[in-house]
Amino acid sequence: MIHNYDDNCIFCKIIKGEIPSYTVYEDDDVKAFLDISQGTPGHTLVVPKTHVKDIFDYDADLAATVFAKIPLIARAVKASNPDIKGMNIVNNNGEVAYQSVFHSHIHIVPRYTSNDDFAMIFKDNSKNYDEAAYTKIQDAIKAQF
Ligand code: 5GP
Ligand code: ZN
Prior knowledge:
Layout: H1 10-16, E1 23-26, E2 30-34, E3 44-48, H2 60-68, H3 70-79, E4 86-90, E5 106-111, H4 131-142
Antiparallel strand pairs: 1-2, 2-3, 3-5, 4-5
The chain binds guanosine-5'-monophosphate and zinc ion.
């Protein structure tokens, strides 16, 4: 695969080896390395080796290539520590969605207990929705394909 780099991108620098990383897996298409924050032990980032900003920037081939690697890497992280009981796999897109590095990446976050140092909240707002409200949103999305 031909890789496009962004000279100002910290993850491109990691991919090129200009900045060191604790790499756990690498092939022609992706690099997986420990997130410096280690939100939970084993917190790993998977990045495409070509610079794409966010999920909206992938073509179908790149998506197929990159996302196909996630189960392989997730299984390896899980197998690395018997205390890992589960795993959140998270991909932030846009500042409002907590993206802080604008080279797309997938977080693999091992979970040890339900009150370890990672949390994700899905509020249940269903009481605010009737059929018309759901249908309006459904139609707006369906119209984009
Ligand atoms: P985001 O907030 O964009 O979803 O995630 C970016 C992640 O990149 C953060 O969890 C942050 O800890 C991690 N990060 C930022 N800079 C570096 C770095 O130089 N090396 C590594 N290994 N991780 C980094
Ligand atoms: Zn980049």
